[in-house]
Amino acid sequence: MEVQCPTCSAKFKVPDTVSIATCPYCGTTFHVHTGEESPEEHFFFPPMRKDAGGVLLKFLSRQYGAPADITGAKVTKKELHWVPVYFFYLHGRSKRWSTIEEVRFVGIPAGSPFQGLLKDYPFPIRGKRFFDESVVKKGRYYEPKMSKEEAEAIARKLMEGALRSEASQEDKSLGDFEVEVNYLGLVHYPLWEVHYEYGGQNFVGYIDGTDGRVVQAEYPLMSGARKKASLLGTGVLAAGLIIGIITAGAYGSAWGLIGGLIPGGAGAFGIFRKGAVKKRKVSEVTRVNRGNLYFKPM
Ligand SMILES: [Zn+2]
Asked: How far is the CA of 136 from the centre of ligand 1 (A)?
């Protein structure tokens, strides 16, 4: 049968046998016959069946400068953590400008040592289930350290920031605005912590327990790649010098030379630094446009 979401008005199909459905567009859980929102507010995401260690090493084998035999590294520890996250659906709009309006779904991590790691994380809207203690028992469980109200305040701030940045992109000042918040519940989110050993050294990675995305991981950068990285660094420095000499010639002063060296030096520094460390950090979750991850203009 077709049902309509009481929060965002989206229409979608559900099997005739279900009495409760979760909207795939905004995450609201409601009774399909009455349209009333479900009083149950505690959920979890079912963990994937794939082995987190295998997923991590396979991902790392494709990374720049990773050793070819990294997939054979020894996994020394694997632990599943259940991170408490408050989920909200927000609708914000400027009262002054009709073009400034945003609708977004956000997850605010509320406790555990991984609160910082999962800040701004693009949590999935689909797939949550009513909390099941027996499933969660298979991992480490954390209580939220933050109240729902505190999390809501953070979510509102995020929405306000998004509205402000949208206004400034349009060269307008936001003025009065309103934010409508729909609380979607407390979700315990699975996160795998994987330790592995390579060349006598230990490395750590964190994997999204629902779909295997690599949230963050370290790997050994091989010496060949390090050498290549430092050569590249020298190249950037040389390019800076050349640009500097050309500008110095054009302006007939030393200022052009210095101007060319500064960006060249800054560019080379970053690359040199990457070239010098043995551990390199990567993430599969792209953070283009960081700080404005959840919010896109409507
Ligand atoms: Zn909806």
From this structure: 27
How far, in Å, from the CA of 8 to the mean position of ligand 1?
A: 4
Q: How far is the CA of 12 from the centre of ligand 1 (A)?
A: 9
Q: How far apart are CA 189 and CA 118, in angstroms?
A: 10
3-state secondary structure of 44: strand
CA of 87 to the centre of ligand 1 (A): 13
What residue type is assigned to position 90 of the chain?
A: L
Give the Å distance between the CA of 22 and the centre of ligand 1: 8
Candidates 40, 38, 42, 18; CA nearest to 186 is 42
Ordered per-residue pLDDT tens for the chain, 298 residues: 899 998 889 999 888 877 878 888 888 888 888 888 876 789 999 999 999 999 999 999 999 999 989 999 999 999 999 999 999 999 999 999 999 999 999 999 999 999 999 998 999 988 899 898 888 888 999 989 999 999 999 999 999 999 999 999 999 999 999 999 999 999 999 999 999 999 899 999 999 999 999 999 999 998 776 666 666 666 665 666 666 556 555 555 555 555 555 555 555 544 444 444 488 999 998 654 443 344 443 3
Bridging pattern class, strands 279-282 and 101-109: unpaired
- State the distance from the centre of ligand 1 to the C-alpha of 37, rounded, in angstroms: 11
